[in-house]
Amino acid sequence: MTVKTTIDAPAAEQPDSAPFFVHGKVIEAGEAIHRSRDLGVNFATPAVDLNSLVFPRTELPPLLNVPLTEIIDFLVEAGQKLCDGKNPYVEACIERMAKVSLQPRKAIEYQMLNAAEYLDKRSLWELVEQNFPNPKALDEWIPHTDHQGRRSFIRAFPPRLIHVLPGNAPAQGIRSIAQSALVKSVSLFKMASADPFSTVAFLRTMADIDPDHPVVRSMSAIYWRGGDEAIERVLYRPQYFDKLVAWGGGDAINNVMKYIGPGFQLVSFDPKTSISMIGKEAFASEESMAAAAELNAQDVSIGGQEPCVSSRFTFIEASPQEADRYCKLLAERIRVDRMGEGTPRPLEMDLREQIDVLRMMDDEFAVFGVTDGRGVAIRSTEPVDFHPLRKTSNVVCVSSLQDAMKHVNVATQTVGVYPFSRMAELRDYLASGGAQRVVRLGEAGPSAIGNPHDAMYPLHRFVHWMANEDGCIGDPQ
């Protein structure tokens, strides 16, 4: 079954090609025209051939009996090829993504060229060892005998996965490919309209090394418009896949939820908001206040504030007058061009208008900076009722950081704390509120290798845990 989607496009417009990658083969045809969600830019893809995307359950996964050591060696080699500076797929991908992404070109370039850092041998092994108490379960059936003498064999069996990828993090494609390879899965990656290019660029790089490698044959990456029932009602079935690994906004998650049922599970990396918490110690001196503002700005500015890990709200133990001094410094530091991004994309009209209205409400709010996309700090006594975006930080005054706990919930991902010594007193309350990660202020971006993500060990969730029970020891054969 083939599905073709076309939108009306100006005749003179030449949309960029977004090829598919299906079980090791590149499909270049541009039969369907799509429009990116964020910027309304057209791109062309092949028609979707549903039959080619399904790997029969009667066939064993290609990676089943490939040793994990060999898989990791292949990923490391691919990482070296990705970052050699002469990769034509990566270069073309950066050019095309700059047209459809909200992120500045320099930010895209930085993320693409540094994605290969994930494919480090020590890092990949540490990731596996953190997720699996006994990594041998990925390679073989592990014997176990319980206290009653019942004998079993346990295997972390390769799953069949659909990954709904995010559009705001180009590096996530390579991470998802690596994680899929480590659990030996057969994987289909649904790319986003804000990034219909990077995952295929990574897979083509791997195919150049060995087009017949089991890792390559286990992977497919295509684009279709989210919510297209002609495709999703066919693919999102337990006959074909075990789990749906979904990244994305609320609409994307809500869309896939309707397909979840017995035998077809959801592993959701749904939308999260990250925050900062700054104690009164920041006002001990001008130097300490400046240091806190710089670290805070680093967390706000991550990826142009597109990723979930970027700080959006800062809760600070301060009076409004103290907070205004802090916000002035924070806005200045947010506006620093840390990656040579150049001219940013301006804020959307509705967000600019909301911030400009707050600027006129002197008694309740104070606004520092300009709504040009380079950075703004908004002081208030309660969180604003809109989603801070594009280097916008809402600084909320509290009498105690404990008072900020009422704003922590299961959608709170990362919490950066200053001074660092106060993390220990706050972490139990943050966990009780639903937060998933607490770090030093300024360190929201880099994550410790193999740690839980969104309160789970992802690789452990991905695999199909299989038990072979073989009776009691001493039973007659």
Automatic annotation (TrEMBL):
CDD domains associated with the record: ALDH_Acyl-CoA-Red_LuxC (cd07080)
The protein, known as: Acyl-CoA reductase
Broad class of enzyme this protein falls into: oxidoreductase
Statement: the UniProt record of this protein carries the keyword Cell division: no
MF GO annotations: acyl-CoA dehydrogenase activity; long-chain-fatty-acyl-CoA reductase activity
SUPFAM superfamilies listed in its UniProt record: ALDH-like
Domain of life: Bacteria
GO biological process: bioluminescence
